[in-house]
Amino acid sequence: MHGPASSGWLLVALCAATGAYCLLRMRSPVEEQRRTAGAEALMAFGMAAMAVPAAVATPPRWAWITCTAVSGVAALRALRTARGGGHHVHHLMGTVAMAYMAAAMTAAPSHHAHGGTGVPVLTGALLLYFTGYVLRSGVRLLPLATAPVPAAGAVGWGDRPELSQACRLSMGIAMLAMLITL
Question: In the 8-state DSSP scheme, what is residue 82?
Answer without folding.
Answer: G
